[in-house]
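Project standup — Tuesday

K.O.: blocked on the structure for the chain from last sprint. Re-posting the sequence here as requested.
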Amino acid sequence: MGFSRRRPIYSYRLFPTTFAASAVILFLFLFLYFLAPSPVDDDHGHRYAENLMLRQSVQHARNESESQGVFRVPDGKGMHHRDLWASKNAKFYHGCSSASSKFAKADVVTHPNHYLAIATSGGLNQQRTGIVDAVVAARILNATLIIPKLDEKSFWKDVSNFSEIFNVDWFISYLKKDVKILKQLPQRRGQIWNPYRMRVPRKCNENCYINRLIPVLTKKHAIQLTKFDYRLANRLDVDLQKLRCRVNYHALKFTDPIVEMGMKLVERMKLKSKHYIALHLRFEPDMLAFSGCYYGGGDKERRDLAKIRRRWKTLHNPNPDRERRQGRCPLTPEEIGLLLRALGYDRDTHIYVASGEVYGGEATLAPLKALFPHFYSKDTLATPEELGHFSSFSSRMAALDFIVCDESDVFVSNNNGNMAKILAGRRRYFGHKPTIRPNAKKLYKLFLNRNEMPWEAFVSRVLTFQRGFMGEPKEVRPGRGAFHENPATCICEDTEAKTKTNSVPALPVSDVTSQPVDEAEWSEPEDEDEATMLPPEDMLNATNMEDDGMSTEEPELDDILSE
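H.V.: unblocked you, prediction finished:
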């Protein structure tokens, strides 16, 4: 108890002593602080300076982040866990389109007095699908095919004939075992033979052609099918599908002048970089007007695009928000650039852009060029003199773009038109070269909210959304989508080689191509395997005898989407 009574007194007396000692020490510290040399002269000073610089750097980064938002595209190379320039499982698949032993030779089955002529419709690639299907239709009918007549009156207004775009002699020679082909109808009683003109419904299958056309061929002997686009069913007998592939991937070759100029452009891209991306931009005023989308250009944009839309009486009233939500709006050039950067392509990547007049011109392209300064087109790679033989013909210019895109290491499409579909099919057939299709339905919200997240989070979401949209094997189930886009019947799997390499460890989950996807989400194949949003006259479910002048002078809606 005595000790307890003395403890408070001891503590009370100790406090003033401690306080006085602390005051003396503080005074000495202040005295030395003002008289001592700068702290940067010793080790303690170095640590002090480093800490100060670190605090300033953090504050500078914070200020920059606050002024520019948290979303910033890094300047350096991005981290990725995949080969950016090759499809992971491509080596296990190859194109295979040879006819089976049951497929009789043309000279055995062709009727001696039945002739089929067709008139194609639309731009270069829409006409290409018509040519491919015309060969198959002639085979179904066991008729001689007359070299197709190209469309000179479409929106694209190109007066080129078949032999000015495609190598006609190669075409006839390559297909001689499958279908007999003539350059023109033979004369009838010494006079020009005018074939009987008619039209078949869209998605017409084998029985449809046989039931509708054989009776007419028996009576008239020569038929011309008008506006021949999407007039053959997507799903046919295996041998007929393989014939489609032989036509599309082997028989249809561009003329020598087009091939030579196209390969010059390819060589010039390859001289600049070992690899390059080809981008089919599709951001022309007509495309945007047709889509009904809005890109933030205010009243001027609305007036400009509304003026173009008035050319088509059958267009529905635009609903930009709905179109965007459903993934029907082409991405802006900036969005395409951000997508590619998120996928791992850095600013040193060389890009070839296949495009017509871009809405908004250089101002619209500026963000894409800032992300990818190595930016080229046929107009920057070739001189006006070199392009002079092609520049007056839209189909020939489109053919040059087609070649450069086909030969690219990576192809990026920005819509689901015929060029994108045909190139996707070709690239699958010839080795599954990477073909990136933006998953616009999922990406639109991501682009809308990108300034609310850091770059790393944006990249993670892009990699997730793009699974199944990178051109890998088996991304789409066989039979789904347009056959020209997904020629599954003509792609064979090397199961033995695949089995031998099955023990290779899987790539990390963050790899955009690591998880095979059964079916792509970007398009709705059952609805889109033929052209969508077509004029009512093209939806007729009956054969139209004698072309009765149903075509109009205004551009066809599907022509705009076709390329």
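K.O.: great, moving the ticket to review. The two ends are 102 Å apart (CA to CA). The chain is about 45% helix and 10% strand.
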